Amino acid sequence: MMLDRCNAALAGLIDGLCDPRRQRRVMLALAATYGLAWFIYGLVAKSSQDINADLAEMTVWAHEPALGYPKHPGLCAYIVRLWFAIFPQTDWAFLLLAGVTLAAGLYLAFELCGVWLDGEKRAAAPFLLAVIPFYNFLGLKFDQNSLLIPLWALAMLAFMRSLQTRSIVWSIVLGLATAGAMLTKYWSIFLLAAILLALIFDQRRNAYLRSPAPWLAAAVFLVLTIPHLIWLVENHFPPLRWVGERRTAASVFDFLRSLSEYSFGTLGYVAPAIILVALVVQPAGTAVRDSWFVFTSTRRPATLLFWTPLLLPVVIAIVKHTNLLSVWNEPSVALLPVMMLASPLITVSRQSATRIAGWAVAYTVSALVASPVIAFVLLERGVENSAAYMKLLAGATEQQWRTSTDKPLPLVGGRFVLSNAVAFYMPDKPSSYADFSDYLSPWATPQRVARGIAIVCEANDDWCIGIVNGYLTANPTGKRGDVTLTPHWLGLAGEPKRFVIATVPPRN
To answer: Which partner from 23, 27, 211, 398 sits 20 to 30 angstroms from 70, CA to CA?
Structure first.
């Protein structure tokens, strides 16, 4: 009986997604439900650990408004600043932001796939994306990669609509979306390359270029990105220097390892969707050959928009001897359902679309059911970078700081992970002095440090303890504290761990 009801509900959902009169509002409801489900998953599964250091760093950036930051442009930080002006600066609010981003990405992918798919094929598209970890497990970390998921889908959709209609509105949206993507992560240069190639090889190219549409989009893009470009030049290209230092391959073996991870890792992430189509739709060999690299006039833009961001980085990496990561392809797979289903040789029945939806729903429900177990396993096994201790360490640091002064705490110093995560939980909303690096924390000037600093170290970190000793020697009013912290979750205790806290109050 329950199974029959579930099947009937799924069939009704597919009916709604196939109905041109209802499909948008049905998809909006589906996307919102999807985002909520993964938000709940994150609340439970991550409840035995604290904030990810990269997210905490983004919050620090949000406290330090600038036209650019040491690793990336600033759009993520601006969004975080706005978000925490509405919501409290907490873990759950960050997860909610990630859930909203995933929902937006899924909805926009549905609209984008609708350029080439209709009926049951379009109805199946969001469910195929919903079994890809980019759209759930990995996307629950709100960062530059996850924000690009909706931005790239919107940019591709706006390009196709602008190309088809030469509409002023869609041209403005194209300029906004591409500028937003570039101001999120420079990886979006491959999105711009894909759009440019799709335009160059499109039969409507000349008529489009004679219209105001592309030039309006370009003008919007330039107006929004020029301030950051000026900052980039004036500060000697900090994010590019960061990539050059961190991502240059150390050897041929290192590069080949990276290339293998990028290629097979990306394939592994999208494999659930490919397998689902193979098992449920069962396309014939001729249909498969007519799916992935098709350059007919109608499907050529999709092929170029899909493959260019995946393959062009490999060419650049070979030339520049640069390492790649598969997670950078989070925004690159929105058109995967089009690649798999757009061939006229492939038929997706209403029953097949319903079965695909059923597998996707089962995938999400299984994750929700497993979330308490995941939280328990993380507590027992521990998580990297001491992430289970950050809220406790922030509390101990706050308590020690208040015994020294009633002034606000401006800075938290220490290893990158500890300093950013502890700063996230401090009520004064301090910034971090990550790794005591002027590059990572350009705001940590001597004048700022003189206003006071707290330093947090793991007890076995000799490098960090040495810096603590140097600060305390130079500042006799400073104080050192040694604490042992034990994380708890639902009455269960994790492994105790020792930390050192140094607080140096303001110099009068």
So the answer is: 398
Q: Residue 40: enclosing H or E segment and its boundaries? A: helix 23-45
Termini Cα distance of the chain: 75
CA distance 71 to 185: 9
- State the DSSP code for 458: E
Burial tier of 319 (Cβ tally within 10 Å: 0-12, 13-18, 19+): exposed
Inter-CA distances, 265 with 85, 148, 261, 270, 377, Å: 37, 19, 5, 9, 24
Q: Where does the pLDDT of residue 246 fall: very low under 50, low under 70, confident under 90, or very high at 90 and above?
A: confident
| DSSP summary character for residue 322 | B
CA 364 to CA 37: how far, in whole Å?
8
**Collapsing DSSP states into helix, strand and coil, what is residue 203?**
coil
What is the C-alpha separation between 56 and 418, in angstroms, rounded? 10
Q: Which of 104, 140, 139 is nearest to 32 (CA)?
A: 104
244: its two tokens = 């050059």
Residues with Cβ within 8 Å of residue 240, at least 6 apart in sequence: 186, 232
Integer angstrom CA distances of residue 32 from 37, 97, 107, 371: 9, 12, 9, 20
Q: In degrees rounded to 5, what are phi and psi of residue 23? A: -60, -35
Tell me how far CA of residue 183 lies from CA of 68, 155, 233, 287, 440, in angstroms.
9, 13, 15, 39, 19
- Show the tokens assigned to 445: 């000037």
245: confidence class by pLDDT, cuts 50, 70, 90: confident
- Could you tell me if 477 and 364 are in contact, meaning their C-beta atoms sit under 8 angstroms apart? no
CA dist., res. 192 & res. 158, Å (int): 13
Q: At which residue do the structure tokens 């950050």 appear?
A: 390
Cβ atoms of residues 323 and 260 within 8 Å: no
With contact defined as beta carbons under 8 Å apart, do 340 and 277 qualify? yes
* pLDDT-wise least confident of 135-144, 198-207, 237-246: 237-246
Instruction: Name the DSSP class of 335.
Output: T
Sequence-distant (6+) residues with CB within 8 A of 85 are none
Q: Give the pLDDT score at 119.
A: 94
pLDDT in tens, 286-335: 998 899 988 888 899 999 999 999 999 999 999 988 899 999 999 999 99
Per-residue pLDDT tens digits for 410-440: 999 999 999 999 999 999 999 999 999 999 9
3-state helix, strand, coil in the chain (%, to 5): 65, 5, 25
